[in-house]
Design a protein that fits this description.
Two copies of one chain form a homodimer.
Chain A: H1 5-21, H2 27-33, H3 40-52, E1 56-57, E2 66-67, H4 69-79, H5 87-95, H6 103-118, E3 121-125, E4 134-143, E5 146-153, E6 158-164, H7 171-185, H8 193-203, H9 209-224, E7 231-234, H10 252-259, H11 261-268, E8 276-280, E9 292-301, E10 304-314, H12 319-339
Helix pairs in contact in A: 1-3, 1-4, 2-3, 6-12, 7-8, 8-9
Chain A binds a DNA duplex through helix 2 and helix 3.
Chain lengths: 340, 340
DNA sequence: ACTGGCACTCGTTACAGTCGAGTGCCAGAC
DNA sequence: GTCTGGCACTCGACTGTAACGAGTGCCAGT
C-alpha cells in the first residue's frame, strides 16, 4: 500500500483543517490553505487512496473528507510534531499553584487548569494510596468502643474511618495500639502493607488481640481496597462546544460515563510510568465513549508514579496541543508534590 | 382579578399535563384527560384569563398553552398536594445507607440516591464546618518545622492542613500544644471558635508563643473561612432527558454554573431550619439558571442544621414528587448522622 | 505522474401548498 | 349570568419540487 510522503501530507492537512474548522474538507480548499504544490485533482486521487485505506471518509457523497479514528491514530503516531506551549500557557501553569494550601487544593487547581487550557473535560486522580507510603497513623478515641482512625500519607492525602471496637478500650490501650501500628507501618508503601498488618495481630498482647484484629481488618479495607481512590473532574461544560456536532448529538452517554468513578479510574488510573496514552474513538473499551478521545498520563515525583491525569474530548481534538499541555501539567504537579 | 376555583383547576391540569407530556396542552385535550365537567370552549375562556394574568402563555399562536414561571409558582404554592412516596422509593431510601462506612460514603450515596429518585441533578453539601463542633484536634509532626494539623468534627468530617512552623519544635512542645488546643476547643461550635483561638496565644508559655500564633492563624483559616465548604454533585446526565427541549437548547450555562462551587453553595448552602425552598426559573438570581428550578432544604440532627441538599432541574418538573423526595431524603440523612 | 475539464451526485436552501391543532369570538341555550 | 356549539382564522409542521453548488471520480492530454 503506497502511502508516500505527499499522501501523508494530505492526511495531515485534512486533520489540521478539520480540527480547526469542524467542517469536512474538500480538495480545493486544501490546496488553497496549504502549500502542497499540486492541483486539486491530484489531491483528490490521493484522497481516494486514503479513503480506501480507511484513514478518511465522506459523510455524504457530495461532501469533503473527514478523518476516521484510524486517520487520527496515524496522525498522532507519525504526522504530528510536538507543539510547544505558548508563553501564556506556560505562565498560567506556573501561576496556578501559588497559594495552594493542601492536597485538595492542588488537585482542584490542577483539574481546573487542565480544563481551561485544553478546553476539554479534565480529570485528575488523587495520588493513589496504593502508591503512597504511610507517614503517620492516628487513633482518636471517640467513645470507649469507638475509634476514629486517621491515616496520613506522604503525599499529604488523609483518609479516615470510624471503627467500632469489639470491647471497651482504655486510653493506655489506645496509646499502645497507636505506637505499635506506627512502628510497624510508617514508611512502608501501602501496597506492601497487607503482610505487615497481618503480622501486627501477633505482635500484640493477648488481651488486645481482638481489638487489633478489628483494626487490622479496617486498615486493610481502607488502605488496600479500591474504594479509596478519588478523582476530580472539571470542564464538563466544554463538551457543549461545537454545539453537539461532535458526539453525534447526544451528551448523555458521555455524562453518564463521567459520573462513574470506576470508569474514570480505568481511564486515568491505569498508567504506566511516564507514558502518555491516547485512546481514540473506537479504541476506547467503554462503549459510551466511542465518540471521544482520551489523553492520559501519570504524574509523580521522579520515577515514583502517584496517580493519573488527563483530558477527554471529541475525537476531533487538537492532539499536539493537548498532548503538550497534559504533559506539562503532569510534570508541574509532580514537581509540586515532590516539594512537600 | 377573578381566579375562581375552576380556573385554578384548569391551571393545575395544564401544569400536570405539560409536566408529563412535555408538550403544549390545548383545550380539547384538557377536557378529555381531566374531568372538568365543562366544554373546551369554556376552558378556552378560562385560559384566556389565565394568560392575561400571566400564568400561562402560548409558544406560538396555533399551539396549546404552557405554564409560565409565575404559573408554576402559583401551582406550587396553592395547587399541589404532597405526593406520598411510593413504597419502592421508601425502600430505596432505607436501603441506600446500609454499609455506609464514613461521611464521604454517606454523602456520595445520598447524592446519587437523590439524583436517581428525582431523575434530576442532585447536590449535597457536606455538613458545614461552621455548624459543627470540634471533636478532636491532632498535630502530627512531619519534620521539626512542619506539622500536619488534623481536625475531626462531630459530624465525622475531617479537615487537614500542612503547617510550616516559624521555628523547630520538640516532641514535647507538640504534645503541649496539642493538649492545650484540645482542652480549649473540643466541644465548641466552629463558628464560636475565633475568640477562643485568639485566647490560646496568651495561654501558652512565652517560648511557644510564635508557634501558637502560627497555629492560630491556620486554625482560623481552616475552620472559619468559607474555603472548607464541600459539595457533592450527581446526575448531570439527567439534564439531557427531554432532549434539549428544556433549557432552550443549550446545557452550556447550566453545566458552567454547576462547576462553580460558589454558586452551588449559594443555592444549597444557605438554608433556614426545616424550610424547603423552591426557586422557579426567573426567581433564580443566577443568570445561567434562569431556565431551571431549584428545590433545596436543610438537613441536620434535630433542630441543629448541618448543611443543605436538593435538586436542580427544568422548570417543567414534577414539583410534588420532587419536594416529597427531597424532604424524605433530608430527613433520613439527618437521622443517619444523628446516630453517630 | 500530474493536470484541466466535465459529467454526476447529493445535501442544502428556498418556495409553495396542504393539513390540522388550536384559538377567539359570537349567538344562542340553560 | 354562565356555559356551549359553531365557525372563521392563524400559523407552525410537513411535503414536494426545483434550483444551487460544493465536491467528487474519471479520462484524455501534457
Amino acid at each position: 500500500m503506497g502511502l508516500d510522503d505527499r499522501k501523508l501530507d494530505v492526511l495531515r492537512a485534512i486533520v489540521e483543517d478539520y480540527v480547526s474548522t469542524q467542517e469536512p474538507v474538500g480538495s480545493k480548499a486544501l490546496v488553497e490553505r496549504h502549500q502542497l504544490g499540486v492541483s486539486p485533482a491530484t489531491v483528490r486521487n490521493d484522497m481516494a487512496v486514503l479513503e480506501e485505506e480507511g484513514y478518511i471518509r465522506q459523510p455524504h457523497t457530495s461532501a469533503g473528507r473527514v478523518p476516521t479514528d484510524r486517520g487520527y491514530r496515524l496522525f498522532v503516531d507519525r504526522l504530528s510534531r510536538v507543539k510547544p506551549l505558548t508563553p501564556a500557557e506556560r505562565r498560567a501553569i506556573e501561576r496556578f499553584l501559588v497559594g495552594a494550601v493542601d492536597l485538595d487544593d492542588v488537585v482542584h487547581r490542577t483539574v481546573r487548569l487542565l480544563a481551561q487550557l485544553t478546553r476539554q473535560v479534565a480529570v485528575v486522580q488523587y495520588p493513589s494510596l496504593a502508591r503512597s507510603s504511610v507517614r503517620h497513623l492516628e487513633l482518636v478515641p471517640i467513645s470507649t468502643t469507638r475509634l476514629m482512625f486517621v491515616m496520613i500519607a506522604d503525599t499529604g492525602r488523609v483518609e479516615q474511618r470510624l471503627v467500632e471496637m469489639p470491647a471497651p478500650l482504655l486510653a493506655d490501650d489506645v496509646t499502645d495500639l497507636r505506637r505499635l501500628i506506627n512502628e510497624k507501618l510508617v514508611g512502608s508503601r501501602l501496597s506492601d502493607t497487607p503482610p505487615l498488618v497481618q503480622a501486627l495481630v501477633d505482635e500484640v498482647t493477648p488481651d488486645l488481640r481482638p481489638a487489633m484484629a478489628t483494626l487490622a481488618t479496617v486498615l486493610l479495607e481502607t488502605l488496600v481496597e479500591r474504594h479509596e481512590e478519588r478523582i476530580a473532574l472539571a470542564g464538563t461544560a466544554n463538551l457543549t462546544r461545537g454545539g453537539l456536532l461532535d458526539f453525534q448529538g447526544s451528551l448523555r452517554p458521555i455524562l453518564e460515563a463521567l459520573e462513574e468513578e470506576v470508569i474514570l479510574l480505568k481511564l486515568f488510573g491505569e498508567v504506566e510510568p511516564s507514558t502518555l496514552r491516547i485512546r481514540i474513538g473506537d479504541e476506547n473499551e467503554i462503549d459510551n465513549l466511542r465518540a471521544t478521545s482520551v489523553v492520559s498520563t501519570g504524574y509523580g515525583t521522579g520515577s515514583n508514579i502517584l496517580g493519573g491525569l488527563g483530558v477527554l474530548g471529541p475525537t476531533r481534538m487538537d492532539y499536539p496541543g493537548t498532548i503538550a499541555t497534559v504533559r506539562a501539567v503532569a510534570r508541574y504537579v509532580g514537581d509540586l508534590l515532590a516539594q512537600n
